[in-house]
Amino acid sequence: ASPENVVILDTGNDGRVIGEVDLFSAPMLVHDEAIYLHGSKQYHVDKLDWDRRKAYVHEVEVDYYTDAQMKTDVTVLEQFRERDPGAGRLAFGEVRVTTLPTMYKKIRFHTHENVGWGKIHLPELELHTTAVWWELPLEWEEMLRSDGLNLGEGLKGLAYAVGNLAPVFVMCDRSDLRAVPMLRAPQTERPTLFLVDNYPGGVGLSERLFELHERILGAVRDQIAGCGCEDGCPSCVGPPVEAGAGAKEAALKILGFALGEESAGAVSGD
Hints:
This protein has 270 residues and is α+β, with helices and mostly antiparallel strands.
C-alpha cells in the first residue's frame, strides 16, 4: 500500500485486506461508524487508526448509508489561464485545499431520510493541487432572489450535479474530482464553483475541464431538466435535505443564464 493510502481490514475474516482508499478520501469513506461499500457488500467501520493508516471493518447488512460532511476551503495560489465563457469568468491554476471532516449523517436508502448522525474527530488535511473555477456574475444573486430563489442553494445543487457528471467527460473516477461551491470565495469575492483535482499536484484533469466547461454545463442542464423529481434527488442536484428545497429550480436558472437560454440582462458578459 502507498503511504498516502489507508488500508481496509476485515476483522470478521482474519483481518484480510479488502481494499484501500487514498488519504484525502478516507475521512469521507472510512471514518469511525461509517458504512463502507465494497463490491456488493456493506462494511461497518469499527475504527479508523489514522496514525497507522488502517481502517478496521466488519460486514453488515443495514438499510442506510453514511454521508460525511466536510468543511472545505480553497485558496488560489497561482492562476495559469483564464477565459470568458460567455457568462462570468473561468480560470484554472494552482490551489491549496484544506478539509476538516465535521460530522456524518445516516441516510436511509430509497427514502433518503436522515436516521442519525455523529461527529467525526480527525485532523485537518491540506492538499496542494490544481483546480478550475467558475466565477458567477454578482448580479445573478439578486436576479434569483427576485424569483424567490436562493443562489447559495442553486450553487450547492449545481456543485453536486457537476461533481457527478464532470468525471464522465475526463474519464476519471467520481472520487478523483471534488466540487466545492463558495458563495463568496475570498480571492474572487464572487459566487464561485471550484472543481478540484483530488491528487497532490494534480494529474491534468483541471486543464481538460477548463476546455470542456460549456459542454459540461450543457450536459448538466439536460440531466437536471430531464430528471422527473420535483425538488431534487440523488440523480440530479442531491436530496432537498442537503442543498435546499429550491436547489433544483435555482440550479436550472443559473445554467439558463450561463448557456444564454435565460435573459441575464446586461450581466451575461460580465
